[in-house]
Amino acid sequence: VLDSSSLSFSTRVKWFAIFFACGILCSILGTVMLWIPRSGMKLYAVFYTLGNISALSSTCFLMGPVKQLKKMFEPTRLLATLIMLFSFILTLCAVFWWQKKGLAVLFCILQFLAMTWYSLSYIPYARDAVMKCFTSCLS
User: Fold this and answer.
1) % helix / strand / coil in the chain, to the nearest 5?
2) Is 44 helix (H, G, I), strand (E, B) or coil?
């Protein structure tokens, strides 16, 4: 990755941190805007989705966009990636096109769950640990 780019490693880390921080800031800002009368839900959906997209794209600076896309569509991450990408689109459709606030909230929750499951796929045995925790809690 470092050989194919003109950016130094420290520059990559800085841009990763900037994009990731912007993603967190947008998500928090969207949650705060949820309480604004009338347009709060639209602002929440837009900022929350932009925050997740920014946080996801931040990793492109660490591993490069091509490698990122290859890893996203590996069989172990494919389902989480597809749910995540479709929930981005469906959130915005629900709030702007269909004008269904409940669906927008549902798709934001799906975004969160898909992003979490996707992120856990990068930590060895994390998904297994989460599954064991939930199955032990349910039984």
Assistant:
1) 80, 0, 20
2) helix
Q: Which residue has the higher pLDDT, 132 or 8?
A: 132
User: In Å, what is the CA distance from 48 to each residue of 26, 42, 61?
Assistant: 6, 10, 21
Q: Name the one residue in this structure whose structure tokens are 């839900």.
A: 41
Mean pLDDT confidence for 78-94 = 94
Query: Sorting pLDDT into bands at 50, 70 and 90, what band is 23?
Result: very high
User: Taking the complete model, does pTM exceed 0.85, yes or no?
Assistant: no
The phi, psi pair for 41, rounded to 5°, reads: -65, -40
The token duo for 102 is: 């409940």
Taking a C-beta distance cutoff of 8 angstroms, is the pair 43, 30 a contact? yes
Contact yes or no for 89/53 (Cβ under 8 A): no
Let me know: does 28 contact 50? Beta carbons within 8 Å. Answer: no
Which pLDDT value is given to residue 63? 83
Closest listed residue to residue 61, CA positions, set 20, 122, 121, 116:
20
Residue 2: pLDDT band (50, 70, 90) is very low
Amino acid at 33: M
